[in-house]
Amino acid sequence: MAARESVWARSMPVKEQLTVIRRLLPYAKPFKWFFIGAIILSGLISVVNIYLPRVLQYFIDHYLRTGNATVTIMWYFAGLYFFGMFVRAIMQFLQNYTSTMGAEYMLENVRRQMFQKLHRMGMRYFDQVPGGSILSRLTNDTMSFSNFWALFNTLFTAFFAVVSSFIAMYLTDSQIALWLLIFMPFLGLTIWYYQRYSSKVYRRMRERLSELNTKLSEAITGISVIQQFRQEHRINGEFDHTNDAYFRTRQAMIRTNSLLLSPLIDLFYALGTVMVLGIFGVRGLNGYVAAGVVYAFITYLNNFYNPMTQMMDNLSDFQDGVVAGSRVLRVMDDPTIAPAPAQHADPDARITRGKIEFKHVTFAYDGKHPVLKDVSFVAEPGQTVALVGQTGSGKTSTINVLMRFYEFQSGEVLIDDRDIREYPAEELRKKMGLVLQEPFMFYGDINSNIRMFDDQISDERVREAAKFVKADDFINDLPENYRSRVIERGASYSSGQRQLISFARTIVTDPKILILDEATANVDTETEEMIQTGLDRIQQDRTTIAIAHRLSTIQNADLILVLNQGQIVERGTNDELLAQRGYYYDMIQLQNSAHAK
């Protein structure tokens, strides 16, 4: 915890912030005309802001002071002023609309690219990064990332307003305009200090928010376990601790913004107003000062500092956006991608028979500590190969390598005598069917969960697949049959029913290779007997790799591999292994004695 605190407690150097900004600019490039249009409109608005005070100044000094103002002249200048205000209002609307829409389009683009990147990343990334942290970066960070672009709108508006206002003040009275520059070093020092200190605050706040989302995700996902083991008090305590930490960082942000943003600019504006009125007052004691000049100068001074106030207010969004942008870029730059086909892969390669061969395969999740060591075996087309062993022996790791969820370090994995890395990923996913111990159900209906939202799969094929695995028995008893609603994770169905739907989901694609990862572990005996016939039919003409805790379900396998600490220690049929009286025999005896009790 201390190491992480030291990383997130430091401020973000200016060079790093500029690097983040430079990296973020390409995401806005497709929508550059929105931002260019906003910049042009900002320049035009600043011109109108110079024009408006000049209209009133001329009217005051040339008509009101001399007593030559008539009703016609008053209406004429009122019309000019109203026209300028009307034009400015339209341009402000267009400028705000174009900049905001550009930021929204950019936000949608970033989220889409980030979501796509997450689905290209390897399983190792999701093993290491909590789901709540990923969710925080995809939602909260990208939203702040969008707000960050709003500052550029304000920045250009402020730039044009400050430059045009200073030019107008200089043309009105150059001496006073130059005197006002005395405050600029102090303003620059304030901005520098805020940027340096606030980046540290926002980095802490973003990390705390990520931790808060992680706690929320875990608490909601594991609510049944929490209630079952009466862990509510502990979970509430942990959440309160994390929430309080996030609250304290928010307090620090509020204190920083309350002191160093608009209040300080308002102070500089007040001091500038005092200076301007003081100098004009001294001049008035020794001569004549035109009222219109005083009005115009004070208006320009307000136009000079007002956009600075807005800019400083948005500076908090800028710091938040830069920090959030760095977190988004960290995901986009992460090299942990899903194993890709070899460069010389044949895009037309097809799996036709389903033969599987491991040749001296060694695999480690971290690249250093092997969990599979020199694993070799052959599964001929149509055969069933079962993997058995104690927890941690390497069964699931073997499947992870075969499914190309992870890249293996050495050896060869062949399908139909061709290196697995020479097949397109689409072909592997199409010809391999995976049934997990815990099937995941998507929100929708049974029909969509079986076809996995693939419109090319007809309703007839869905029904045939369900009937094939004996799932149609319970589906037809439901009020809406295949259109019956599936709520989150399929909570309204039993584990056996969910597993049957999972079987149908796999079979509907007609895979050549079937992988069963403890597929009947959570199914009761009655349901297991019901689907066993379906499983036997499923495995016909398909190569099957099966992991099973219940050894009785794989006794008819063509080959049984017994793994221990990542190595195959025994291999053979059920009868051959029993005759050896080794690991497999001991496992059978242990399981039989457990059932006998």
TrEMBL record:
Record membrane topology: Multi-pass membrane protein
Annotated ABC transporter domain residues: 356-590
**Domain ABC transmembrane type-1: residue ranges:** 36-320
Which CDD domains does the UniProt record give? ABC_6TM_TmrA_like (cd18544), ABCC_Glucan_exporter_like (cd03254)
State the Gene3D superfamilies in the record. Answer: ABC transporter type 1, transmembrane domain (1.20.1560.10), P-loop containing nucleotide triphosphate hydrolases (3.40.50.300)
* UniProt-annotated location(s): Cell membrane
What keywords were assigned to this record?
A: ATP-binding, Membrane, Nucleotide-binding, Transmembrane, Transmembrane helix, Transport
A Pfam family assignment: ABC_tran
GO MF terms here are: ABC-type oligopeptide transporter activity; ATP binding; ATP hydrolysis activity
InterPro entries (UniProt xref):
AAA+_ATPase, ABC1_TM_dom, ABC1_TM_sf, ABC_transporter-like_ATP-bd, ABC_transporter-like_CS, P-loop_NTPase, Type_1_exporter
* Cellular-component GO terms for this entry: plasma membrane
Among its keywords, does the record have Transmembrane? Answer: yes
- Membrane-spanning parts: 31-52, 72-91, 148-170, 176-194, 258-282, 288-305
PANTHER family assigned to the protein according to its UniProt record, in alphabetical order: ATP-BINDING CASSETTE SUB-FAMILY B MEMBER 10, MITOCHONDRIAL (PTHR43394:SF1), ATP-DEPENDENT PERMEASE MDL1, MITOCHONDRIAL (PTHR43394)
This chain belongs to which protein, by name? ABC transporter ATP-binding protein
